[in-house]
Amino acid sequence: MTRPQGHDVKTLPERPSQKSGPSLSPPVLPGQWANGQGRTVHSPPRATDRGPQGRVPVTVSAPDPISREGAISQLRPHPGIELRERPGPGTVALLIEDTLDETALTRLRRAVRSEGARTVLVTGAIRERELLDVIECGVAAIVWRREATSHRLAQAILAASRGDGDLPADLLGRLIGQVGTLHRSTTSGPGVSSPGLAPREVEVLRLIAEGLDTGEIATKLAYSERTIKNVLHGITMRLHLRNRAHAVAYAIREGYL
Description:
This protein is an alpha/beta fold and 257 residues long. Helix 5 (169-186) runs parallel beside helix 9, helix 6 crosses helix 8 and helix 7 packs across helix 8 (225-238). It folds into two domains: 54-166, Rossmann fold; 168-186 and 195-257, Arc Repressor Mutant, subunit A, CATH 1.10.10. The strands form two sheets. The chain has a five-stranded parallel sheet. The protein has nine helices and seven strands, in the order βββαββαβαβαααααα. 28% of the residues are buried.
């Protein structure tokens, strides 16, 4: 068709085809970035941002910067962990110590006082005389340094955040043996009465000593996880114990296990 002279004909811009990929991508929102394939991916949160609900805030302390940065690089990719520079409500403190000398134990006690019972210790060795000190000061989980993979660290941190204990099997055996020896050597006559444990409390602590977590204990005893957590909370509050490992140590010392 011949265009009328003296008139400019303006063409409308073409509407994007329904099959065109990137042009139909949803708008990129703050805190997201487009990966170039029509998909929108959440960007990592900034250090000053509060992480999404469900992420566990974690601080990392170590005697040297190489160890600290190594642990941070292991934890940074984990979707359930939010690294922080300073502690806050619900924070889990990851403390790395090659050996537990008096200086290291002081740092450990300070971390426990700061973070409550949510402390994970990564260490190369624990001597017999240090084991009870570590448990009684409130450490929730212990990871051998030689086993400190990103998966193992995250497992211990998430367990501590739930209020669970997490000890290596060999260390748990040493703890049971040491507390049993201590109980036999310090048994005294009637003088101080023990507050005592109910049969259900003893059974829960026995299963913890066997290495079961909250969900497994609930399944085995046919209770809800909330009930198991309430039982453990009642034990620790009534007997002034710091965490599950401390409760197990108490039960062994008193002859329940």
